[in-house]
């Protein structure tokens, strides 16, 4: 039945979707129903591992949630094709949290009590993570998030919350500082939205940049409600050599356009965080001014000439083309700098479950300890973004970051940071908390 | 253009002022809540999506706001100088298409019920993912967004497809009461209050309730709604109940009158299908009673608020950082007040405009009758805005629906061969798509208001009898419509964060 679907409607490639993952499941169910099947003996070894996928299917996170879902299904398929976890297939149980923290907590509870999933996984938006984490702690269900927020590493959550598949924003921001000082300029002005997200960049960027000889010469906070930016540009000191921008929201395009109109062909160099333009085509009208500027990327959106085989295999599995857009739709630009985290996190769950000899919900505490026993992840099929160091105390991974330059409307990686560039001392220790 | 830049700046400064001053309880509450979350989230990864609205913001939308206002104002001016008979001729013009089809409502309604019931089943027992389960997609996208537009185009097909007629007839036949009058009679005094309350509840559930897309929850709500109406129909009779209580029957019987395709009697008294100018059939529409007038105004208020509640303007007003939307559950109170507020404001403005028109024209016509007739002119605006506002949802979620109906229980079925359909989720993304969508939206909004002005004018002539009085009476309403055109286009072009 699955084969028929490829006929008319899927011109190129099936793409690994929910359905692909379900197909794997069907095969598992088939084994269980086979004649002569001794249910008791097999129960523990062939029932699926149930992963509760806390997904942003509706609400403001929906555009990101779509790619998180695609990558999650692709990773599930890959893991199932390779024999599952301890020989048991993965089953994804999706619940929509509406990108809402209150619903997030309800979803965690539903996974633990109603769906009886083994773990909860996949949350992106920070406020949903922060809203859901207490429920995971109380219900003692491991909660693997993919949000890149600093909240896990800060120690403000609990022992059941992990972020092993993606580097947090504090490390990302620190990692690029020295390269900017050495290559773009020693005098920088930070333009940021004036609330917590922007404040993180304002507060966490300077340390490593200044240690490398740079100096922050200007801070230009922009009110989050602002939709026109030209009147803020005179606040950028004339001595500025680099403008660091982290604007987000629907005003980003207007921001770039007005910045271009303000500076024309001259002006400081630009360094931005791709968070501003995830899922947006860099070659869009209005973004011409970004040509030649630099961006942080966690994982290259565009296929790089030196891409590893693992990165290529990952791109094929999740269905993105050389430009980082869906193979089925070149306009559907992926959230490449974040979604790899879903792939890697599922593989880490597999690794930890296998190390723990995980059998079922009764072993959740063992799973937490087994995850905390992990120290590093080698680059490869399970970790296409690159190798990582895992700090068990703060439940946070640290990986390489990329600096990419916009050339002909595409992002070319010009520098890859070392893992150490972003690392910082643990400021908490979850492992001392009771299980 | 400059004027509209100023207008925009004024709107921005207005909400900044509101932000600074005038403490509203809801605002304080929400601010506290957001601040609390913000404190906890020491380092939130904020991904307020750049999204499609960002591209719209690059377009010269100010020209459209101005052009739309000018077009609607100009159309009013043209109508003032045009002899009323011209409009009457236009509205009376109809083209006979086919003779009346056979009345098979018992059959179509029963089939419809069976389809609906199977989708409820999928909602209850299928995937928990609202983009894989067919129920939320079929109900919100195919039915509420799509079918409403179909009714506006083709007439009240709901009469044929509503899932109560068939089952209620079968039940009555089974208990031997098929020809008996209904045991109870709806009190006349109730008017359309029942439908009004149901529409308010529906609007609240759609726009304010935190999880209207939850498949199982939606299934339970819809089953309860179906049972409630079935009981009402059995007790009070199908005709009375669907004319005054069941909200979709009431709504679609109104929207259906706007359709260019109308089933009506020809000059020999035989039923046939006619093609006529959109809204032409409204010229002979009866004045709506008070409750139904409010019902129609609420329909427009609901879809308008759906646009408004996502704008930076509204979010700032209720103390939410538009780049860090805290989720629906944090704005339940504020948006409940907002929905009620926009309904009250729109109703008050409309009644005031009609009252003022009556005064200016020196007419003795009753305000209730004038309102009840002129409110028909709200219909094309509501439908135009429904189209514009939900166009993106229709394009994207319509594709998800196509995939979901083939595999309603997410167990690997492929009933219609569309189960693996790749959803072109970027169909509305990027500069080119934003341009096309914005122009379609603008055309619909402006077109809807033009038709509204024409309908209002024709109805005014009916009320006041003289061309001069009709023209005079329409000045306030025409100003309201020019204003609403600008408001509608502004809603579709201003930055959103919710």
Give structural notes:
The complex is a heterodimer of chains A (435) and B (498). Chain A is an alpha/beta fold and 435 residues long. Helices cover 37% and strands 19% of the residues of chain A. Chain A has two domains: 3-167 and 336-399, 3-Layer(aba) Sandwich (Rossmann fold); 171-307 and 315-325 and 401-422, Rossmann fold, CATH 3.40.50. Chain A has helices spanning 18-33, 39-46, 62-81, 101-115, 126-139, 169-183, 196-204, 206-211, 252-263, 309-318, 336-356, 364-372, 419-422; strands at 49-55, 90-96, 119-121, 143-144, 161-167, 187-193, 215-222, 242-245, 269-273, 294-297, 325-326, 329-333, 376-377, 388-391, 396-399, 402-407, 410-416. In chain A, the strands form three sheets. Chain A has an eight-stranded mixed beta sheet, sandwiched between helices. Chain A has a seven-stranded mixed beta sheet with strand order 7-6-8-9-10-16-17. Chain A has a two-stranded antiparallel sheet with strand order 11-12. In chain A, helix 1 packs parallel to helix 3 and helix 4 runs parallel beside helix 5. Chain A is globular and about 65 Å long. Residues 1-43 of chain A have low confidence and may be disordered. Chain B is mostly helical and 498 residues long. A three-stranded antiparallel beta sheet of chain B has the order 1-3-2. In chain B, strand 2 (261-265) and strand 3 form a beta hairpin. The radius of gyration of chain B is 24 Å and the shape is globular. Chains A and B meet through helix 1, helix 3, strand 2, helix 4 and helix 5 of A and helix 1, helix 2, helix 3, helix 15 and helix 19 of B.
């Amino acid at each position: 039945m699955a084969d028929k679907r490829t006929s008319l409607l899927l011109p190129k490639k099936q793409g690994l979707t929910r359905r692909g993952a379900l197909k794997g499941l069907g095969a598992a169910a088939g084994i269980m129903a086979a004649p002569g099947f001794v249910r008791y003996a097999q129960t523990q070894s062939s029932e699926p591992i149930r992963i509760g996928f806390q997904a942003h299917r509706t609400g403001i996170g929906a555009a990101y949630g779509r790619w998180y879902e695609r990558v999650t299904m692709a990773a599930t398929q890959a893991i199932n094709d390779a024999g599952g976890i301890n020989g048991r297939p993965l089953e994804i149980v999706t619940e929509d949290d509406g990108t809402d923290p209150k619903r997030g907590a309800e979803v965690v509870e539903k996974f633990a009590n109603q769906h009886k999933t083994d773990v909860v996984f996949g949350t992106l938006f920070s406020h949903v993570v922060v809203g859901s984490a207490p429920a995971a702690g109380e219900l003692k269900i491991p909660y693997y998030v993919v949000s890149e927020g600093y909240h896990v590493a800060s120690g403000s959550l609990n022992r059941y919350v992990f972020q092993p598949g993606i580097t947090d924003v504090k490390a990302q921001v620190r990692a690029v500082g020295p390269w900017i000082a050495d290559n773009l300029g020693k005098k920088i002005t930070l333009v940021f939205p004036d609330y917590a997200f922007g404040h993180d960049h304002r507060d966490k960027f300077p340390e490593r940049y200044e240690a490398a000889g740079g100096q922050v010469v200007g801070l230009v906070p922009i009110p989050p409600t602002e939709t026109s930016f030209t009147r803020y540009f005179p606040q950028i000191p004339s001595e500025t050599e680099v403008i660091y921008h982290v604007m987000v929201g629907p005003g980003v395009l207007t921001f770039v356009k007005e910045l271009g109109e303000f500076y024309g062909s001259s002006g400081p160099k630009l360094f931005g965080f791709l968070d501003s333009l995830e899922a947006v085509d860099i070659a869009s009208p209005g973004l011409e001014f970004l040509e030649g500027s630099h961006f942080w990327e966690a994982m290259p959106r565009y296929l790089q000439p030196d891409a590893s085989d693992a990165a290529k295999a990952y791109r094929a599995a999740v269905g993105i083309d050389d430009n980082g857009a869906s193979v089925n739709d070149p306009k559907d630009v992926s959230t490449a700098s974040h979604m790899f985290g879903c792939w890697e996190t599922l593989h880490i769950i597999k690794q930890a479950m296998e190390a723990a000899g995980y059998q079922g919900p009764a072993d959740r505490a063992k799973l937490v300890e087994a995850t905390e026993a992990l120290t590093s992840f080698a680059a490869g099929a399970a970790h296409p973004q690159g190798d990582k160091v895992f700090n068990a105390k703060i439940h946070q991974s640290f990986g390489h970051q990329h600096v990419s330059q916009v050339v002909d409307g595409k992002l070319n990686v010009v520098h890859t940071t070392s893992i150490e560039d972003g690392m910082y001392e643990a400021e908490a220790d979850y492992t001392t908390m009771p299980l | 253009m400059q004027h509209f830049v100023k207008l925009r700046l004024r709107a921005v400064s207005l909400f900044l002022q509101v932000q600074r001053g005038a403490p509203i309880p809801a605002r304080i509450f929400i601010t506290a809540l957001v601040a609390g979350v913000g404190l906890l989230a020491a380092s939130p990864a904020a991904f307020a999506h750049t999204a499609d609205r960002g591209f719209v913001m690059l377009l010269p939308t100010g020209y459209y706001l101005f052009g739309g206002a000018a077009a609607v104002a100009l159309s009013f001016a043209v109508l003032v100088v045009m002899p009323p008979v011209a409009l009457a001729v236009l509205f009376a013009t109809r083209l006979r298409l086919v003779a009346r089809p056979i009345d098979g409502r018992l059959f179509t309604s029963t089939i419809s019920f069976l389809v609906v019931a199977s989708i409820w089943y999928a909602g209850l027992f299928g995937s928990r993912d609202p983009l894989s389960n067919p129920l939320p997609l079929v109900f919100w996208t195919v039915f509420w967004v799509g079918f409403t537009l179909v009714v506006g185009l083709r007439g009240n097909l709901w009469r044929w497809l509503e899932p109560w007629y068939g089952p209620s007839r079968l039940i009555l036949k089974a208990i031997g009461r098929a020809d008996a009058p209904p045991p109870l009679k709806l009190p006349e005094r109730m008017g359309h209050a029942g439908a009004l309350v149901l529409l308010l509840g529906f609007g609240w559930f759609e726009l304010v309730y935190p999880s209207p897309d939850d498949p199982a929850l939606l299934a339970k709500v819809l089953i309860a709604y179906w049972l409630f109406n079935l009981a009402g129909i059995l007790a009070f009779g199908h005709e009375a109940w669907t004319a005054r209580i069941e909200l979709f029957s009431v709504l679609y019987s109104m929207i259906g009158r706007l359709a260019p395709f109308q089933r009506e009697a020809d000059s020999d008294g035989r039923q046939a299908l006619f093609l006529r100018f959109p809204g032409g059939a409204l010229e002979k529409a009866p004045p709506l009673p008070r409750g139904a007038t409010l019902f129609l105004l609420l329909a427009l208020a609901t879809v308008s608020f759906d646009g408004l509640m996502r704008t930076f303007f509204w979010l700032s007003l209720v103390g939410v950082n538009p780049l860090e939307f805290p989720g629906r559950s944090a704005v339940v109170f504020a948006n409940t007040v907002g929905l009620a507020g926009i309904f009250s404001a729109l109703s008050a403005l409309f009644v005031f405009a009609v009252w003022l028109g009556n005064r200016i024209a020196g007419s003795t016509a009753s305000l209730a009758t004038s309102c009840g007739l002129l409110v028909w002119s709200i219909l094309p605006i509501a439908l135009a805005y429904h189209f514009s506002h939900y166009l993106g949802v229709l394009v994207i979620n319509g594709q998800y629906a196509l995939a979901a109906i083939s595999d309603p229980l997410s167990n690997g079925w492929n009933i219609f061969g569309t189960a693996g359909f790749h959803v072109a989720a970027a169909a509305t993304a990027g500069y080119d798509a934003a341009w096309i969508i914005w122009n379609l939206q603008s055309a619909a909004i402006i077109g809807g208001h033009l038709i509204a002005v024409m309908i209002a004018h024709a109805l005014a002539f009916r009320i006041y009898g003289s061309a001069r009085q009709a023209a005079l009476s329409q000045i306030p309403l025409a100003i309201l419509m020019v204003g609403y055109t600008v408001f509608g286009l502004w809603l579709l072009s201003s930055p959103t964060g919710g």
